[in-house]
Design goal:
This protein has 277 residues and is α/β, with parallel strands linked by helices. The protein contains 9 helices and 8 strands.
């Protein structure tokens, strides 16, 4: 899957959603501290919306070694426009003793913090969705399917974009884990326990997070009968790039597929009662 190159998802995700300038900036709040470091959530609240509102916690990609909450701002503003409280999450990146397992703990703690502060955030704690891109798709899925310490709860609904779901034999993740077996935090290995309704947006020619992993994940979750759906796009690679020769950088996102994927996520949220249109 990942070959150790921190692909430049920032430029890619800016291309994923063309946005105009927004006057409103998110409210940045600390949700936990690790040593002398504080980790933050970035809260986008819909304007003039009655509370409590459904929320969506958002986890960026970057191969577990790169990225920042700002990478998901374009998608956050789309969700905000639908009436959700959109919350990009900062998590620890791998390196210097930090591993994807630590980032997973951060994801779990972010869900717990948002539900614990639901009243002040204007959030309905029973309707907290999770959105994850690539490596972020791994974090939100694993947190939701039982990998949180002490039985912590993840998302009530999953929105996944080119997610990393099959990690059991992934050499890159094993190296980031210091040689530990990644199976225990692999969403595919956890999927047989069942989970919430899920939608996956996936390039059929993705070589980093292959389509077969998404299909196997949904099948293990119970398929469409359980509300797990995969929308695949022929001839497109990771994050719906048209550049199949280099799927870790130099992205050329297909604009028609990108918009269709965004529309699929919006329709899913409407169908599940998280958005009003």
């Amino acid at each position: 899957m990942f070959r150790g190159v921190a692909h430049s998802v920032f430029g890619c995700l800016l291309a994923m959603a063309a946005t105009t300038a927004f006057a409103q900036e998110p409210q940045v709040r600390a949700y936990k501290s690790v040593g002398d470091r504080s980790l933050s959530v970035h809260v986008f609240k819909p304007e003039a919306a009655a509370s409590p509102r459904p929320a969506v916690l958002m986890f960026h990609g970057g191969g577990w070694v790169a990225g920042e909450p700002e990478w998901t701002y374009p998608a956050a503003r789309n969700f905000q426009d639908l009436g959700l409280v959109a919350i990009p999450v900062q998590y620890r990146l791998s390196g210097d003793g930090v591993t994807p397992a630590d980032a997973l703990v951060d994801a779990c703690d972010a869900f717990a913090w948002v539900r614990g502060h639901a009243a002040e955030l204007g959030v309905d704690p029973a309707r907290v969705a999770g959105y994850g891109v690539s490596a972020g798709g791994h974090l939100v899925s694993a947190a939701t399917l039982g990998a949180c310490p002490n039985g912590g709860k993840g998302a009530d609904l999953l929105l996944l974009w080119s997610p990393a779901l099959d990690l059991a034999k992934d050499g890159w993740v094993r190296r980031l884990l210091g040689g530990a077996d990644p199976a225990s935090i692999s969403p595919l290995a956890l999927a047989s326990q069942g989970g919430p309704a899920t939608v996956v947006i996936q390039g059929a020619a993705d070589t980093l997070t292959p389509l077969r992993g998404a299909l196997a994940f949904c099948e293990a979750m119970g398929g469409t009968a359980s509300g797990c759906r995969v929308h695949s796009y022929p001839g497109l690679g990771h994050l719906l790039t048209r550049n199949l020769d280099n799927q870790e950088s130099d992205f050329d996102i297909d604009p028609v597929a990108r918009r269709d994927g965004e529309d699929r996520l919006s329709a899913f949220l409407v169908e599940r009662g998280y958005a009003g249109r």
